[in-house]
Amino acid sequence: MSTLQSALDRISPLDPTYFDQAQAHLDTQTKPKGSLGTLERVACRLVALAGGEAPCVDPARVYTCAGDHGVAAQGVSLFPQDVTRQMVENFVREGAAINVLTRTAGVDLKVVDAGCLGGPFPEHPALVQCKVAPGTRDFTTGPAMTRQECLTALENGVRLALAAREDGMKTLCTGEMGIANTTPATALFCAYLGLEPEAITGPGTGLNAEGIRHKIRVIERALALHAPVVATGDPIDILACLGGFEIATLAGMILGGASLGMALVIDGFISSSAFAAARAIHPAVAEYAFFAHASAEPGFAAVMDGLGTAPLLNLGMRLGEGTGAAMAVFILRCAANIYNEMATFSSAGVDSGN
Question: Which helix (H) or strand (E) holds 314?
Fold first, then answer.
């Protein structure tokens, strides 16, 4: 049995009775019922993930997965592809925003070469090298990946989750880096969620209005080319045609994390496309996922509606890397600690008003 299939076989929906039990406990605490809003809903999910036991979020890890994209040749990004590799080196040197925010949040960080241009990077303890190939192909002329390449990336992601569990991690956070990757991410949202490129295509690295119109046309061409595959509904074939190595690796990591009962914190626009792929492969992963923040990409609200969820934070961010996910871990900690540590009316001798 493959690593991927083994993970898929282990994923199951959470037991709804744990949600009810958790809410019943929260309702005994010294506050009006429901007054902590989203925090209470997060706490209930964490209790269900813990099988009804006291929830624990830490330790947590961000995997920032990097890959290059053949569609960059179509001029859909303001930055050259060299920047992907340069940023991986910056992550390893601890000079990027994700390094600062994971340090600040007390979250572990691993950087992953999922498919960057060029050869191997110098070895480093913070770097995981599982390059499937040096960048995807241009998806306006053919599939971005073969099905086998896509499966390899998915299995690499499952192995990242397994490694995190072996290291004692309880929470997995997604992050990514890849010049031009908002283009495949947008195409995937269109394919999986039935959205239109014109409605959700944004500036990415800062395209102007004409640049966005050009990007829309590029995505429309790709969707037209791969329409027969999209029509089959096969989620892995769709991912292979339209995705990227870092996106497929993150999708595998999401599936692997769910198979291990871990809390999953999904970062922003690109990471959410990896989640959309993972959900299409196994819908139950949705029960394990928390969405970190509202990406400033203009189509993100429609994506969240399409996925039937809402993010925890709204800070006007659109960097990626896992930056929003690192900060959202603090929200999960707050929810767990409220559940575990807050006094009940009876223990505190406070009148419940009943």
Answer: none
As a whole number of angstroms, the longest Cα–Cα distance in the chain is 70
Is 155 in the active site?
Answer: no
Cα 166 to Cα 155, 159, 160, 214, 351, distances in angstroms = 16, 10, 10, 45, 46
Which structure tokens are listed for 32? 């009006």
C-alpha span between 267 and 187 (Å, rounded): 18
Does the pLDDT at position 169 exceed 90? yes
Mean pLDDT over the full length of the chain: 97
Q: Residue 322 above 90 pLDDT?
A: yes
Task: Identify the active-site residue in 123, 220, 321, 341.
Answer: 321
How many angstroms separate the CA atoms of 86 and 79, rounded?
12
Please determine, for residue 354, whether its predicted confidence score (pLDDT) is greater than 80.
Answer: no
CA pair distance 109, 128, nearest whole angstrom: 11
User: What is the rounded distance in angstroms from the CA atom of residue 57 to the CA atom of residue 171?
Assistant: 6
Distance between CA 288 and CA 14 in Å, rounded? Answer: 8
Residue 67 in contact with residue 247, Cβ under 8 Å? yes
Question: In sequence order, which ranges of the chain are alpha helices (DSSP H)?
Answer: 3-10, 16-26, 38-49, 82-92, 97-105, 147-166, 182-193, 197-200, 209-225, 227-232, 235-242, 245-259, 269-281, 300-307, 323-341, 345-348
Half-sphere exposure in the Cβ direction for 97 (13 Å, CA): 14
According to DSSP H, which parts of 167-260 are helical? 182-193, 197-200, 209-225, 227-232, 235-242, 245-259
